[in-house]
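FAQ

Q: What does a record look like?
A: Structure on top, sequence underneath. For example:
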């Protein structure tokens, strides 16, 4: 069967507690943007759903530099919980937002402030958007997941502090992760 995903912004200000220090601030639904919920149904460049999420973590958005995860419904359960992050987000009183689609093409850099890395979207050879794949928890456990080139990178940025930027921090290193 296919695994469904929802992007989530984690923080310490919301009311849905995961652990002692981790909270869900909000999540988005791909269906609200007429996209499929499977990872590869919406993980492509210039996709209005992914662009809406990018806007949230951009300098113009309300959640600039936030902890991000694309939570899969087949991912591992959270510590001390019978549910995974996807299930918790959908079953609790969590803020599901639907920001209007914005042009995020000027934000060519996906920046990982936790790891000191960035991806330059202008250096990608294929049309697959790296943000959902790099932050995907549970990839490889269901139909519609990513299994191609660089699949070992899927999920390596999950729950890290991320943003999209017009310039990259000069001290950060570029991650070449062209997914095919």
């Amino acid at each position: 069967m296919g695994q469904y995903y929802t992007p989530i912004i984690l923080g310490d200000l919301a009311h849905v507690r995961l652990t002692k220090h981790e909270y869900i601030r909000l999540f988005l639904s791909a269906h609200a943007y007429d996209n499929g919920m499977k990872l590869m149904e919406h993980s492509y460049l210039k996709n209005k759903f992914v662009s809406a999420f990018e806007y949230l973590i951009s300098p113009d958005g309300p959640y600039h530099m936030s902890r991000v995860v694309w939570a899969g419904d087949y991912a591992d359960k959270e510590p001390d919980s019978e549910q995974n992050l996807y299930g918790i987000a959908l079953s609790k009183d969590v803020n599901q937002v639907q920001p209007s689609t914005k042009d995020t093409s000027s934000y060519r850099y996906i920046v990982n402030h936790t790891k000191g890395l960035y991806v330059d979207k202008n250096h990608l050879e294929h049309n697959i958007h790296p943000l959902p794949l790099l932050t995907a928890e549970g990839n490889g456990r269901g139909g519609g997941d990513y299994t191609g080139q660089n699949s070992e990178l899927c999920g390596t940025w999950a729950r890290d502090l991320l943003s999209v930027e017009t310039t990259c921090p000069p001290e950060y290193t570029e991650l070449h992760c062209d997914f095919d």
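Q: Is there anything notable about this one?
A: The chain has a mean pLDDT of 91.
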